[in-house]
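Q: Entry one of two.
A:
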Amino acid sequence: MIRFQGTGKTFRGRDGTAVEALRDISLEVAAGEFVAIVGASGCGKSTLLRLAAGLAATSTGEVTLDGARVTAPRAETAMVFQAATLLPWADVLRNVTFPLRLMGRVAPDTEAKARALLATAGLAGFETKLPRELSGGMQQRVAICRALLQDPRLLLMDEPFGALDALTREEMSLELLRLWEARRMAVLFVTHSIPEAVLLADRVVVMSPRPGRIVDVVEVGLPRPRSFDQEGSDEFQRCARRIREHIFGQRADRAA
């Protein structure tokens, strides 16, 4: 569905210095597949998502969606950031429907679908609340509902649970799995948490320090539906150990 082919990205600072963020990324993600991306800070994970979203242009290679080159944001793609980025003056329902209103895609059943989605996410009864009246986890659920209401074929998630406490993060991981199981869109999910990546993903892409390159793609053979009970399984530990060996090996190489 989405394909990175020889994709690279170089930024230029104010002083003209070139900073190579990504180099020669080649990756394909199938429709309905959940792919997590892990790597050290600054390795280009977020930049990769921005290229997939059409929010930045490639310096080398290309990104294609259904064979068409991605050069601008597309209706089939939605993105969730680490911060919920909700409109502080708008209630929950208006926040969820805002992107469709902005794109002129509001249909007669849009509000009903938004309410149903909020109910699925455990937010029934909060439609008229303002963001400041919600917990951090609830705000992020609203942000996920906002993305899902667009009915995307590709969902990009940039450390969406990074600002949450450990218990809320686990709750949100299970909530995301439940929503994804119901809709099965393709997901690219950036995280610093190796257990989170293994729990959620069909495959985990491990990236090198900058310039970010793919050093391994770990297939996760855990059965679905997933739960935290699987963390003690041999397959979970095998995947986590293989990813850690790459990450910690990279740090050792840099320190040498």
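Q: Entry two of two.
A:
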Amino acid sequence: MVFGHGDDTYRYGGMIKMNFSSNIYQKADLSELKAHLATRLDAIGHYPEPQAEALEALIAEKLGIPANMVMVTSGANEAIYLIAQLYRGWASVIPQPTYAEYADACRMFGHLISYERTDELELLPDDRIYWMCNPDNPTGNVLLKPFVKQLIRKHPRYLHVLDQSYADYTLQPTIQPREMMDCYNLMLLFSMSKKYCIPGLRLGYVTASPIIIERLRQIRQPWTVNTMAIEAGRFLIKNNVSVLPDMKAYIEEARRLRQQLEAIDGLMVLDSQTHYMLVNIEWASSLELKNWLIEHYGILIRDASNFYGLDDHCFRVAAQTAEENDALVSAIREYRALKS
């Protein structure tokens, strides 16, 4: 695991007042969920279901697929490491920049990793996995749905892992599991932690053919998903809870933030179809800017220098409220003036 993911507020002893570093929506109203979990605290005195089957059944019903095509995991990360373990020693193609845990998991289990250089692809063995993050993290880029479907169907010999953890944070269409039930070379990853803004509970799931799901079950440890996470998942799905803002308005505010950042001399912002964006800074390192913002304003951004292919002049921010976004822009402008 790479240390230095977003939302490292634990490092700063209560200094953080505005958190732009996490891609998870920061203003979610979780009071309804908290009230329900408070009535279920006695459950922590008992073991959870070994495989969260009741929650898997609810998810499958909501998705319109058989329950044996769903496996609940401790966040999407557990699914990533289980897949890398199941296909130990295979080749993995991981386009960059993207979520670092794919490569970390593949290295742990002896994969031959390619970062999609054309000359390398010709040399890779046929036992091969393609990893795709869609929407991508950290860029916010979203691959067109028809392109993704064609790519998967055109190459049935290879396995494809499509991580759609941030699918609820874009207006672009993404693949639904029921659309690809006849594709036995596809694994879809989803993050309930992100959809419901509960990263501390660690909750996700993978959908795939029943054969792949059964093989994943055979290598996982029991009780990886805790009792309160299972209880939260069941409550959120049964009650059709939604905690995210109106996404059209949220994306529009993110576009406004992007325009304001682009107007600052020496900043280049990559286009994004989500609420978060990758920024290149010319006149300081990303770590210098991060530390200055924390010290002077309690603002936390994501230093993106530990993404493969990015350098120490890249950072990522996720849009917050209009007032907070304006505060971020104003603070960066001030630091730019000090550096002049």
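A: Comment on entry two: The mean pLDDT is 95. DSSP finds twelve helices and 13 strands in the chain.
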